[in-house]
Amino acid sequence: MDEITFKIDGHEIQAQAGETILSAARRRGLSIPTLCHQDGLKPAGNCRACVVEISGERALAASCCRQPREGMAVSLNSPRVQRSQRLVLELLAAKAPDLAHTLNSELTQWCEAMGVGQPRFTRPAPPPPDRSHPAISVQLDACIQCMRCVRACRDEQVNDVLGVAGWGAATRISFDADEALGQSSCVACGECVQACPTGALTPANGAALQAADAIVDSVCPYCGVGCQLSYRVKGNKVLEAIGRDGPANQGRLCVKGRYGFDYVSSDQRLTTPLIRREGVAKDPADIGRVRRGELALSALFREASWDEALDFAAAGLRQLRDSHAVGAARPLAGFGSAKGSNEEAYLFQKLIRQGFQTNNVDHCTRLCHASSVAALLEGLGSGSVSNPVLDAQHAELILLIGANPSANHPVAASFIKNAVKAGATLIVADPRRAPMARFATHHLAFRPDTDVALLNALLHVIIAEGLTDPDFVAARVNGYEALKAAVAECTPERMSEICGIEPDLLRAVARRYAGAKSAMIFWGMGISQHVHGTDNARCLIALAMITGQIGRPGCGLHPLRGQNNVQGASDAGLIPMMLPNYQRVAVLEVREHFEALWASPLDAQAGLTVVEIIHAAYAGRIKGMFIEGENPAMSDPDLDHARAALARLQHLVVQDIFATETALLADVILPASAQLEKWGSYTNTDRLIQLGRPALQPPGQARQDLWIIEQLARRIGLGWHYWQAADGAGHLAAEAPTARVFEEMRAVMAPLAGVPWARLRREEAVVTPAPLEGEPGHAILFEQSFPTPSGRAQLVPASFMPGPEQPDLDYPLVLGTGRVLEHWHTGAMTRRAEVLDALSPEPLLSMHAEDAAALRLHEGQPIRMASRHGELQAQLQISPEVRRGQVFLPFCYWEAAANVLTGSALDPTGKIPGFKVTAVRVSAAGNPSSKALSE
Hints:
29 helices; six-stranded mixed barrel; globular
């Protein structure tokens, strides 16, 4: 039965099958008190505030749990129901403090609505508050034990921190084994705070007791999940962030999205244009001096007006452009940003191509998923994910390889954990034992740098044992026979000797993947950030193709995007060999189309990539750069070389919100706007384009990024008019110029053809490709064919080859770099967010206990780490996550900039560096003679 008819207080109500009385009543606008119930959480029925009377039944029923029957008669307002509800509320109010810890106490609101006054019962002695956590205050005197916080932690985020301790009247909410919150394993996602109805859990900054001037809906500025949120704003400052029920997050947030917003209010924000002082040389050593407080920023730069700064910036760029004849290689390049909006990415690449007359434009996607995109374009004709993260709920098996979503994509990780709890099988393949391994049926802790050997073993088993989908291969795949021949000798026994995984386990995993009704592969930069990253992705593509695990719900290929707009920035053309929508600059028809649109000739030669640009700058071939929102002086490999290259530039213009490590090497710094201060669209890892709205005004003289880009364009001779006089002076956010850029971008990007700005404004989130305005976009790709000339996928075999960074007696350990939960990218934003920096304030090198013992090192000890490229100091952390012979260091700390150690060898196809494998040695700080583990 699809629909049930029953009565509430004599009125007929229709309910869907499986719907509760509470839900059906609310749809009709009927009010029922609730405290333990929250949409999105499983019904518990333990507060009894929502009881109703059902005709013919002796006991009152909890409407949040009870489903109606055909013909049932329900009373919401009988004297018996009213007495029971008021008594429940009075008993709960008797346990609460006189003054609530939040302005939005649901208990207070329901007591007022139901006419419940001062409780007649004795209030118990209140437990002491717990202020041990930087993000969350605990006041259990307000706790009514509704268990919403426990269910949010256990069932939604699956972090399993909150529980119940004690007996009888001493029953209480607890953290781990009744620890103080600050000493528990809490990851500060804040889901418990958002769930709490009484203020027993509140933000530690006191936001719960402050009324907001405005509530602004927007999208998170951090990872590629693209969580929708609302900012509560007061006095041009954000009080708190609250998760919205967006299609990518369903109301959930992580610690960065919920507590990492106050970087925008940092006293380190750039507020005035700066020009390097005459005679002050660019010295990479100044980065450390400024960061340590030994050198003032004002010693390097002087303040300037906007006109002076823009004129100076443009003059240097224009002079370098015009110093070379038309057709000659231009000595200019630009780095755009995957943190900026789609509109900024589009306008930036247009400036470089039209104004600088070169294709030397790239961004940090080159350093994270360039190899994944290269393999996907080559094999499937599209660099996009095939299925959204939430499709994990339809997967029978999930293969998570080279990714640590618990730290890098926590909300996505929660959906994967939900799928496992619902019965899906999780296979984790990663040298580190990161938190997701706890939920895995198998954890394949293979040796670093042996991904291809591991994956070829799986391919061999699937082919040798006849586990392929021959009909799918025959209908939709090219290159199968070549792949079969290439992996014929890659038996589990042979590959086991390379990757370190037992042959029987390799066979078991291959069989489970191939035999699953639906299998989905998620991967991260543990796959892509290798000199053989494209080969790694080719193998994953082959796994999906030969088993037909694509084009259906719960299947497919999903490289998890690292930054909030990696997908959108790439779509918009921030790639040296691609114009917007991945149209190659080398193709005459493509160039002619854009030349007609932009009324400018375009270079036919593909530009240099990120690392190639840095090498060219060091060699003097690139003499000038415009860098917007990127920080290559922290993110690039072989960092000492990269910083020296940036310092050698004749003219470096940096547009940013902070004086980043890169900005400290600039000739002119232009203070820009943060995401919370501007309009823009952003495309998440699911290909979901979403709307960001301004919640704050930029500080001081900081300006909108689109305005700055256009001002530079006008000063080098381009007649742009996106930003018009009616839009203001460029300080405050303006929607109109953003919409103008978006509409031009949409005209040259077929996946956005059905998403005019008005639709995005109305719907706030549209999955792409969306070719038709009146229809939803395509969440699942490749259902019938692939966007290749033949409509078929192309398999590209890969052979195992060891990378250049091999351990030896001098450098016996293998370093992997990456992120930690609390920080993001180079730390420019998160290390200026008070809560995030308090939670993770210093660089920690993770090492296995046996390796530390062999080197006579102990937890918390200062250590020195050296590679063939550089050296640094950090603090030692003994960790069970790394296996023997491995160490791990996050790359967000300027005090121990991990990329000082990494080399600049590149993947030949994706042009991405091998960040994940660097040979190093570790010794006690001040003991450089301690070289090798074996010694």
